[in-house]
Amino acid sequence: MIIRKHIIKLEDTSPSEMARFRQIMLAIWRQQIEDDKNTDEMEKLIRENYIAKSNLDSDSKKSYDNDIFYVNDDGSIIKVEVDKSYYINVVLSNGNKVLFSDLDISGRTFSWNNTNRQIVANIAGYYGKQLNIKEIGVNYDMSDKSYAYTIAKKIWLHPTSKGGVDPFFNNKYNLKSILIHEHNHQKESKKKGGYTYSDHARVFLKQFQDSTFKKTSEKFALGHISNFIQYIDYASGHNEEGWQDLIKEFNKSQILGGYYINYRESGGTQLFDNKGQKLVIEIRKPLDGPH
């Protein structure tokens, strides 16, 4: 039995006051009976669902499922909260909660949004640190042609025409996958003969082979594989060497559990999922170069 202490103040000992006292005691008694009836069930539930705090702490540190960022007026991260969602949420200094792409990082006439760019840079840097990727910056040059780009060994995120980063980046694994892609550009070394479509296709392949890629959103993943196929097709059309080996490596790598590319000189390249179903490859805009 669970014993609780109750303090009841009586105004006097009149019949009406004593009647009120009896009603109070009856209510306490009934609640005590209900509590006792539920005690065994509650104890059983706790035993079955109990997880040691040390295990929780250990799992939290390993999972990197941290996605609620609290920031101050300067854009610095002051707290990161554990949440099992794939989405990146930001709690601003005024208490408002927004998605990552809601932060306007464009350079407008009367507002340069420097704080928002600092927030985006800090969050991107947070995930970059998990991947051992450095040199990540944010600028205000609007573009809808790319998610990010690398210049002089530095990765740059930029706003779309809507003012924020691409909404794909609301998913932390999409963001991580892009950082991995750009990091592979960082590691590229200049070679004689210039940059080729096969070189860029190889960057995509390394991105797919990282374990992060299987956690990206379906639309994001299919879009990037479609990009890879487009670069392969252009490499073939320009009579480059080595593109056939990239297809073979893709098919051997069990990308997304076994996606498979069937190259055809006529009729178009085919893509099959891990169940053998042929997928519709999104028609992409023509490439204006291998970069």
TrEMBL record:
Domain Tox-MPTase2 per the UniProt entry, residue ranges: 69-241
InterPro entries associated with the record: Tox-MPTase2_dom (IPR028914)
A UniProt-annotated Pfam family: Tox-MPTase2
Protein name (Swiss-Prot/TrEMBL): Tox-MPTase2 domain-containing protein
Native organism: Flavobacterium bizetiae
